[in-house]
Structure to design on (480 residues):
């Protein structure tokens, strides 16, 4: 699309008025660009829909970073977006508290009592229902982290949040918050 | 810029249902994550002076020191800019090195523009740190200066994987990314035994840093090495002052190296944000189009 802008210059014409020039600005709507890119089947295999955490070792000590989806930014921006949603739902305060805990660090999650998990799952499910189609990846981030912290308590249906794959002959552990279905059934 | 990105504001807040490449429909919230620009442009967008860091609040005199300062905060910056626009003279305005610019990112949802500036290997490391600074400093410390460096480049033994600079480097007028990389490969060999051992150490640290920064995959361990190289440079850089080549290291590009580790951890490796690809497209899109026009 093309738009005409009028810009006022700092030079003056012979009457002493500032010179005005019309310029064309050709541009595209960035949302259309995103739509084109995200819907292009050529990128089907390269497209990431959720953030991931990759580890080089079984103990999850040596984190691997390559593409943007493996960095922290994506996790953080979804957490903050998610917390804003939570503020709108006052009834689930425990979960809001937990939401702040899980952002502090990994060890705090590990210290949480095991009995809290069913409750969280419950609230997660409620949240998923109320926010269907919204920014719902964040509860799953918590789920992924809880599963890391306490792998004994992982329900069998969500065992696929752990994925191993080999890359450059290194075994990496990928923690994925990928499957919505695994959560609602948990 | 504001009118260009205007559609993103609504889309980022409410989300837009899009059909994805795998055939599913998803509600998409496009959010500004990375802004690839060179230093002057970064400063313009960050509304800061060009002798300041667009990412953090480090003062001009500390740019060359390995200290960490707090990152710029979008809300605080906007508040200060508003105050300044209303005619007050807030202390933070001068202290944080701001300048009156109307920021385009003011309405973008979940956008922290300062943490969106990505590392730029071509401009910051190759052109900035290596060519404009390191090569010049080291050349000055050598007896014989440019001639000695050229002579040593010419004297390098040939190898299939190395480029041989048969005329030396002082006559190279067009420095491209490839030239830089090829010089970096042999530069340490060129100055070995000619420069002071401490200068060689500092050079080695910088070359290591550039090399590690190129990695397409990083781990916590390799990021430690990247940071280690940066620390080693700061531990050895004083030799340049002793030899009276530099009086200070308060250079934005030297400071920019400090943010690499953090940016790789948050946004992924630096190869994804390298400006080499877009600079290359200048040739196709700008120069060819210009040649085809009248």
């Amino acid at each position: 699309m093309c738009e005409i802008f009028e810009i006022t210059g700092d030079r003056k014409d012979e009457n002493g008025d500032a010179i005005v020039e019309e310029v064309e600005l050709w541009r595209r709507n960035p949302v259309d660009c995103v739509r084109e890119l995200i819907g292009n089947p050529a990128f089907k295999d390269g497209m990431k829909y959720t953030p991931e955490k990759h580890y080089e070792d079984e103990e999850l000590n040596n984190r691997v970073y390559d593409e943007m989806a493996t960095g922290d930014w994506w996790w953080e921006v979804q957490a903050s977006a998610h917390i804003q949603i939570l503020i709108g739902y006052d009834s689930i305060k425990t979960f809001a508290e937990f939401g702040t805990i899980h952002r502090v660090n990994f060890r705090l999650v590990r210290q949480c009592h095991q009995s809290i998990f069913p409750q969280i799952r419950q609230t997660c499910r409620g949240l998923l229902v109320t926010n269907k189609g919204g920014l719902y990846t964040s509860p799953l981030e918590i789920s992924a982290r809880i599963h890391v912290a306490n792998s004994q308590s992982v329900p069998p249906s969500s065992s696929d949040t752990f994925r191993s794959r080999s890359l450059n002959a290194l075994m990496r552990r990928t923690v994925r918050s990928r499957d919505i279905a695994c959560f609602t059934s948990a | 810029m504001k009118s260009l990105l205007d559609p993103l504001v609504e889309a980022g807040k409410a989300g837009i249902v899009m059909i994805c490449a795998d055939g599913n429909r998803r509600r998409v919230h496009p959010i500004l994550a990375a802004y690839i620009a060179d230093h002057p442009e970064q400063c313009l967008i960050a509304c800061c002076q060009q002798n300041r860091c667009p990412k953090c609040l480090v003062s001009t005199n500390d740019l060359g020191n390995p200290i960490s300062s707090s990152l710029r905060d979008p809300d605080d910056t906007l508040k200060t800019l508003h105050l300044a626009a209303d005619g007050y003279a807030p202390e933070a305005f001068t202290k944080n090195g701001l300048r009156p610019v109307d920021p385009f990112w003011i309405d973008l949802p979940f956008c922290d523009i300062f943490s969106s500036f990505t590392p730029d290997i071509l401009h910051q490391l190759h052109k900035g740190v290596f060519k404009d600074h390191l090569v010049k400093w080291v050349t000055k410390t050598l007896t014989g200066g440019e001639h000695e460096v050229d002579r040593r480049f010419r004297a390098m033994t040939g190898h299939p994987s190395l480029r041989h600079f048969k005329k030396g480097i002082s006559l190279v007028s067009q420095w491209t990314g490839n030239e830089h990389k090829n010089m970096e490969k042999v530069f340490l060999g060129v100055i070995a035994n000619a420069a002071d051992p401490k200068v060689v150490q500092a050079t080695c640290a910088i070359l290591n840093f550039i090399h590690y920064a190129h990695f397409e995959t990083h781990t916590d361990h390799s990021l430690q090495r990247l940071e280690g190289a940066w620390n080693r440079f700061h531990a050895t850089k004083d030799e340049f002052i002793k030899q009276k080549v530099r009086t200070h290291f308060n250079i934005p590009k030297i400071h920019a190296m400090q943010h690499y580790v953090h940016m790789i951890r948050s946004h992924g490796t630096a190869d994804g944000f390298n400006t080499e690809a877009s600079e290359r497209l200048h040739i196709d899109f700008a120069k060819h189009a210009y040649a085809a026009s009248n």
